[in-house]
Amino acid sequence: MSDGAQRPMRIMFMGTPEFALPSLNILIENNYTVVGVVTVPDKPAGRGRQLSVSPVKSFAIQHGLDVVQPATLKDRTFIDWCRDLHPDIMVVVAFRILPPEVYTSARLGAFNLHASLLPKYRGAAPINWAIIRGERESGVTTFFLREKVDTGSVILQARTPISEEMTAGELHDTLAEVGAEIVLHTVRLIESGKASPKPQDDALASDAPKIFKDDCRINWNTPVRDVHNFIRGLSPRPGAFTFHDGKMLKIYRSRISSTEPTEAPGKVLAGHDRLVVAARDGAIELLELQQEGRKRIPSAEFLLGYAVSQGEELY
């Protein structure tokens, strides 16, 4: 390398799910040198318990990138591997909590892409909680990593509206693409020395904890808008559910109905060709659902095979 020549930026990428793929792809498309990709170990999945690889691993292999899958991020061998690669920047998208020994190995710093407008919705499920709580706007944030999760100084943010019917899955896909652009811009700012990180205001923070199956049961005795937001905020995963005739029904789409609620919350108001259910202060039409052991279908198709009468209860 001649005097004054600048070597290519060396980027280490860490991520696991599909949400991370647009960010990794945009770095490759813009000719950045991805010196290593870190993702989770392969896991048994399905009835056959065959080993399943993460989307990031599959993508990285297709593009000829070196992949490591540490069982623990505090393993000395893994920490030494990170340092020996001499990364300039570490990019983290939907991965695990990193120990300081790892994220301090990047010469110019390590940053994370988070799917909310920090400091709002710090935690594992920001997309779900933004919709469940009825937000009309979300976005993405890049921030420098620090030991306390999701609290580092903000580098860039981008905003996107949340429509009345948007599901968590749809917002996820939108933010993955928006996030990729922000990742690229963040790398360029750090590379040029023009990044101006700003500390978060902890007084404005809110939590977005991980959502478990037991958290996903619909409470019909709540305001109808809350029921609607709950359904779309958990769609498609992990999925809001209720029970009918002893069988679980997962609900994926709904809309607030103008039908007058003449029954108690959870009771069916219309069930011939439309499935409308009473909530505390209104009615909600269920548009797409899945009975346990069956495929996901429109409610009109479900009603062709199951007679649901007014006054029956979802619980």
Summarize the structure in words:
This protein has helices at residues 21-29, 55-62, 76-84, 100-103, 126-132, 168-192, 224-233, 299-305; strands spanning 10-15, 33-38, 43-45, 50-52, 67-68, 89-93, 110-114, 137-144, 154-161, 240-244, 247-257, 268-270, 275-278, 283-291, 297-298. 25% of the residues lie in helices and 25% in strands. It folds into two domains: 10-204, Formyl transferase, N-terminal domain (Rossmann fold), CATH 3.40.50.170; 213-305, Methionyl-tRNA Fmet Formyltransferase, Chain A, domain 2. β13 (275-278) and β14 (283-291) form a beta hairpin. The strands form three sheets. Strands 5-2-1-6-7-8-9 form a seven-stranded mixed sheet. With 315 residues, the chain is α/β, with parallel strands linked by helices. The mean pLDDT is 95. It is built from eight helices and 15 strands. The relative contact order is 0.10.
Key words describing this protein structure:
single chain; 315 residues; alpha/beta; Rossmann fold; Methionyl-tRNA Fmet Formyltransferase, Chain A, domain 2; 2 domains; seven-stranded mixed β-sheet; six-stranded antiparallel β-sheet; 8 helices; elongated
Give the gist of this structure:
With 315 residues, this protein is an alpha/beta fold.
Q: Measured on Cα atoms, how large is the radius of gyration?
A: 23 Å
Q: Within the largest sheet, what's the order of strands?
A: 5-2-1-6-7-8-9
- Spans with pLDDT under 50 lasting ≥5 residues? none
Largest sheet: 7 strands, mixed
What's the level 1 CATH class of the largest domain? Alpha Beta
CATH topology assignment of the largest domain = Rossmann fold
Gross CATH architecture of the largest domain: 3-Layer(aba) Sandwich
The fourth-level CATH homologous superfamily of the largest domain is Formyl transferase, N-terminal domain
> What global shape is seen?
elongated
Beta fraction: 25-35%
State the domain count.
2
Taking all residues together, what is the mean pLDDT?
A: 95
- Give the proportion of residues in helices: 25-40%
Query: What are the secondary-structure elements, in order, as H or E?
Result: EHEEEHEHEHEHEEHHEEEEEEH
Structural category is: alpha/beta
Number of strands: 15
In whole angstroms, how far apart are the ends? 70 Å
